[in-house]
């Protein structure tokens, strides 16, 4: 076990968040990329995680809608709702 640069699936899992966030140093990033390209299992894990993160980012951008904008939106929706009732 003298191969320090021998990336295993375990290493991929441990560094997955940093890898996705682009927080790894270039050498490790390149090694993980190489492993993912040769390992279908890790490729599936990475792709799944990337999709999940994209969904989270979308949800996050909705949540970070300025409060004022949200109030206006809700006010407008409420008014339209009352209009329909009357
Ligand atoms: Zn793997």
Automatic annotation (TrEMBL):
Pfam family, one: zf-HC2
InterPro entries linked to this entry: Anti_sigma_zinc_sf (IPR041916), Znf_put (IPR027383)
Domain of life of the source: Bacteria
Domain Putative zinc-finger: residue ranges: 9-43
Protein name stated in the entry: Putative zinc-finger domain-containing protein
Organism: Anaerolinea thermophila
Taxonomic lineage of the native organism: Bacteria, Bacillati, Chloroflexota, Anaerolineae, Anaerolineales
